[in-house]
Amino acid sequence: MGFFDFLKDLFNPVKGGTGGPKPAGNSPARALAPRKTYASPGGPRPLAPGLPQLPTPASLAALLRIAPEKLAWLAKEKGRHYATWKIPKAKGHRTIEAPKKQLRAAQRAIHREILSKVAPNAAAHGFCTGRSPRTNAEPHVFRKLVVKLDLRDFFWQVKRNRVAGQFRALGFPPDVAAILWRICCHRGRLPQGAPTSPALTNIVCRRLDARLSGLAKKYKARYTRYADDLTFSFDAPNLAVQEPLRAIRTILSEEGFSLAREKTRFLRRMSRQTVTGITVNSKLSPSREEVRSLRALLHEARTKGPKVANRNQEEAFGARVRGRIEAVRAIDKSKGEKLLADYRRVAW
Hints:
With 348 residues, the protein is an alpha+beta fold. The chain is built from 14 helices and nine strands. A hairpin with a 5-residue loop joins strand 8 and strand 9 (285-286). It starts with a helix and ends in a 5-residue tail after the last helix. Residues 11-20 and 26-41 have low confidence and may be disordered.
């Protein structure tokens, strides 16, 4: 079957505007929903700034430097392109879906040529060039109350219709968007382990981040997000947090996410306040837990190999570990140098 025959057979447009759930009714969070989008529903979408012109599937294949027939083969939603396994965690297990070599190469090309050119919201700090655990923690220094929230099944909550809608909202024609979402999704959602998934979650979450930033401003709070970790900090000593928490849950529900409530933490100044591994009570300092975690990880990577230590099959694992070390080093040079020496002993 040729590429264009395949497209005729395969292509079934996913409807839904920008792909994200819409605020419903007269909810308390409805007024915070941003109204400006790249295009109105139903009409042609102008291309988002900085993205390549891709009028046809053939132009996408040329951009990615992949033969059209091979691109069509990779876009078929079958398990042959993934290796799947489970790793234990505190409660239950985590399923890792790692793309095989050829699909991974295509996903990396999509990330390089397309996704990396889409700017995330300013509140996002995970998987963003120039941002880090440190930049995520800095806004929350010397605050009277830090509230840490965790999104449940973060990648899996982003379904294929939302991914398809985002590619359409970025300005790609339906047949090009269809190939892109099929290559980036697995079993109808974003897989944990694909190099495209982190950037796509940041794109999908742009409206969520804008709404939560607006909510934080309303309560004179500060908000940041690092992947699935949400942090709010307040400077009112006796703030009743139930009202903003209800609004947060409403916004999350409307945007298609839910909280892992058992992981919610309220950290007041008299306790140790940590954000993405950094203590923020009075100044930035690496948390003991982060330093211990890095030491244990580096020991495992050195004795058993990086592949064993990379339990979540993170893309560019060595670079991510180095980034965590540099975040420690920027705050505490002595501890950072010791960790860096251990890092250099690993055969990455």
